[in-house]
Structures are given as C-alpha cells and as structure tokens.
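Per your request, structure below.
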C-alpha cells in the first residue's frame, strides 16, 4: 500500500468514526469513503517562490459563511503543470509560518468541490525546500469541512488563486450517499 492510500484510509476512518469529523449522523450511516483521483507524479511540482514583504498588510479572506479570516501573503509559487505555466499565492497564519494554499481550478464545481480545495503544512503536500523553493504535491489536496457540512466556516480561495487549468489530483467532490 502506498503512502497516499494509507493516509486516505486514515482520513476515511476519521470521517466515519471520530466525534470531531464534519459528517453528521445521517452522512455517517451511508459513508463508504471519500473519492480521489489516482495519484500521479505529474501533480508533484517543484515551485520557485517569490516572497512577499513581511511588512505587507494582512489580507482578509472571505469564508463560506460570510465571515472573514486574516492571513499573511507569504509568497507566490510559480510552477509548470501539464505543460502550462501557473502561479498560486501561499498564505500563512498571521503569527506563525503555518502555510495555507487554498485554490480553485478548472475541475471546481464539476469533478471537485465548487468552492475549491486546500493544501497546508498540517498535512502532507506542501513542503518548503529552501528559501526560494517549495514542493507542492496536489495528490494530497483535500476538501474543506464546509464541503461536507454547511455548519463550518471555510476560507474561500481568493481570485489570485483561481487556476484556468484542471488539477486532476487529490480529493474529488463529496457524495453523501454510499459508493
């Protein structure tokens, strides 16, 4: 079993049984696992990073419930995927170096959750390699909790993180019924 499959099984176990999982009782009754694209090395990219000034003001990111959350724009990651040049802004917690990469792509609202997906430094998939380089493995991208339950308030990817290309990697759209 590869590392992706093992981690995905752990997430399914959490979603099914953990009291802090976002699924309600009715969803848990029919839950048979999340849906994913097959992992592909094409979606593991090495990106060069242009850092933003530490003095840049914090940005407010709108959430799925209309609230706002504050983040620091950490750096702009530039990479090539499927032969296409792309760039995404990596955000950080205002007080720490916890990375957060919310994004939308051409699959959003069709094959994947409409509001977008995430990568962050609390899960595999986003790793700083040096001052000017970061590894982005889209095979690890996941849906925010608001994809499963409207009671959660999730940051929405800002317009600067909307890609015109498809990222067919990571978690697909959630279906509350069984597989």
């Amino acid at each position: 079993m590869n590392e992706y499959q093992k981690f995905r099984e752990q997430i399914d176990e959490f979603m099914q049984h953990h009291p802090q999982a976002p699924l309600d009782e009715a969803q848990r009754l029919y839950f048979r696992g999340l849906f994913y694209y097959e992992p592909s090395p094409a979606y593991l990219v090495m990106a060069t990073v242009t850092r933003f000034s530490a003095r840049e003001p914090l940005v407010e990111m709108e959430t799925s419930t209309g609230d706002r959350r504050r983040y620091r724009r950490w750096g702009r990651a530039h990479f090539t995927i499927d032969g296409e040049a792309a760039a995404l802004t990596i955000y950080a917690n205002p007080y720490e170096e916890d990375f957060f990469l919310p994004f939308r792509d051409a699959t959003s609202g069709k094959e994947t959750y409409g509001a977008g997906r995430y990568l962050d430094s609390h899960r595999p998939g986003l790793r700083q390699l040096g001052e000017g380089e970061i590894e982005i493995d889209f095979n690890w991208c996941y849906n925010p909790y608001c994809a499963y339950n409207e009671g959660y308030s999730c940051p929405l990817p800002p317009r600067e993180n909307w890609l015109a290309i498809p990222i067919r990697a990571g978690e697909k759209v959630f279906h509350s019924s069984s597989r």
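The helical segments are 3-17, 25-30.

Regards,
D.
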